[in-house]
Amino acid sequence: MMSTSKNGLENGKSFHKFFESWLVKQNQDLDQLVRASKDNNNNKNNNDMMLSPLIHSVVKHYEEYYREKSRYANSDVLGMLHPSWLSNLEDAFLWIGGWRPSMAFHLLYSKSGIQLEANLHELIRGFNTKDLGNLSGNQLVLIDELQHKTISEERKLSENLAKVQESLADTSMVELSHVVSELMRDELVVNDEEEKMEKSISKKEESLLDLLKKADDLRLSTIKEILRILTSIQSVHFLIAAAELHLRIHEWGKKKDAAVSHHKWSCQTINEEPNSEGTSVRN
């Protein structure tokens, strides 16, 4: 199951290319969702029959993303767990190679609170805003039940991840690392032992792959289950919030990385400026 570094690098570049093209689709989806939301606010008869195809299309794009991610993960699971195409900011908040499923509920409640506050006057007057600020009692119960279920499944995956991570220091790995170290100190050939270590690590990668796929399944199913609870126009608002958060965090993270890189380059350039005698000076 383990891929060579060359194949891993090629897979990373290929998925990076797919990811960039998928971001373009997400931006396009966002534009369509925003237009649908505005049309609804302008009372242009945006009923379920008109909104459902758009929502279905957006969900299909999420499905496409996770399908491709799974395909690439089969040959380079480590690359998917530590994606080079994401910013350091995004990487810091990753949970098993992606966003934590329970975040979807925080997103939902945050947007609901924002829209509730913005339209409070209309709600008091008895008008139905039809957005996330107007969730019904039944919807809140269903969302709460789904949240508890999601957190429970999330916790199980986290516990399984901990077991896999701890297995890196199991008896076989400790013994193999000691044997290889002894052979290296004696300047002897370590090929056989390193092959054993690779096989042992490969088994752990298989466990990581299984966890990644289950985590991605939970991410996708959480989105779908939330959308089943919401009305069509509420789903539009939820998908808008999800896309905006993802796209802006990605952009902010990339800008931050670029700024840090530029700062490091500037400092290095200053430290290497030649002195009056024409030689470089390093601090």
From TrEMBL:
GO molecular function: sequence-specific DNA binding
Annotated InterPro entries: Seed_Dev/Stress_Resp_Reg, TGA_domain
PROSITE patterns per the UniProt record, alphabetical: DOG1
Name of this protein: DOG1 domain-containing protein
Residue ranges annotated for the DOG1 domain, each copy included: 12-259
Biological processes per GO annotation: DNA-templated transcription
Coiled coil: none
Highest taxon of source: Eukaryota
